[in-house]
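User: Could you go from structure to sequence for me? I need the amino acid at each position, not a summary. Structure tokens:
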């Protein structure tokens, strides 16, 4: 079992989650890291990882540590949000493919929705709203399982389109980044592949 907990700078009591525990799906995780900041970072990854009894996951902790280590780039941040292409808890390399076979594409992508305030909200809507609300976006989805490549690329294109629209329709400076170089297959590095030695690179669309 993982024993990862959140880093000490996280304001644990104020963490906000959009989760369906029964279905083992995490649609959004919003983690405050400061009382003073006014801006937010959105990290878009492939799928959530299981958390330990202490609340954290290795993926979340590594991403938050990277953000904290790059305070010069992000000087006014009060929270970091995580959303996912596939909101399924990814236990191993076969999880996503198995869920697709057993429960279908809508369940895998979260497009069947989750109940929020009495209404159904689709995962793509959650991602779109978070893109609009965030000041900085980091693409961190990594490479897809082979059997999901086509669907994965479609969902990434949807996300990039939403980012372009959000950027055009706001007066605020909205920037997108990746950490380090793209992978050999041309994808943004996954959070679990981030290293403190990797540079934060602005992603030009």
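Assistant: Here is the amino acid at each position, in order:
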């Amino acid at each position: 079992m993982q024993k990862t907990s959140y880093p000490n700078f996280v304001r644990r009591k104020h963490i906000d989650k959009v989760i369906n525990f029964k279905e083992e799906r995490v649609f959004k995780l919003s983690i405050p890291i400061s009382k003073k900041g006014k801006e937010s970072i959105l990290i878009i990854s492939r799928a959530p990882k299981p958390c330990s009894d202490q609340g954290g996951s290795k993926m979340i902790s590594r991403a938050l540590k990277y953000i904290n280590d790059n305070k010069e780039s992000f000087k006014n941040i009060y929270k970091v949000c995580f959303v996912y292409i596939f909101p399924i808890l990814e236990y191993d390399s076969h999880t996503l493919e198995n869920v697709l076979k057993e429960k279908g594409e809508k369940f895998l992508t979260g497009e069947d929705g989750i109940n929020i305030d009495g209404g159904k909200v689709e995962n793509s809507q959650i991602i779109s709203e978070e893109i609009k609300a965030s000041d900085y976006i980091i693409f961190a989805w990594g490479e897809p399982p082979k059997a999901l490549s086509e669907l994965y690329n479609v969902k990434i294109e949807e996300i990039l389109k939403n980012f372009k629209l959000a950027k055009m329709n706001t007066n605020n400076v909205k920037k997108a980044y990746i950490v380090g170089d793209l992978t050999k297959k041309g994808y943004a590095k996954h959070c679990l592949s981030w290293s403190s030695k990797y540079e934060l690179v602005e992603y030009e669309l």
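One structural detail worth keeping in mind: Helices lie at 58-69, 95-103, 105-109, 123-133, 149-168.
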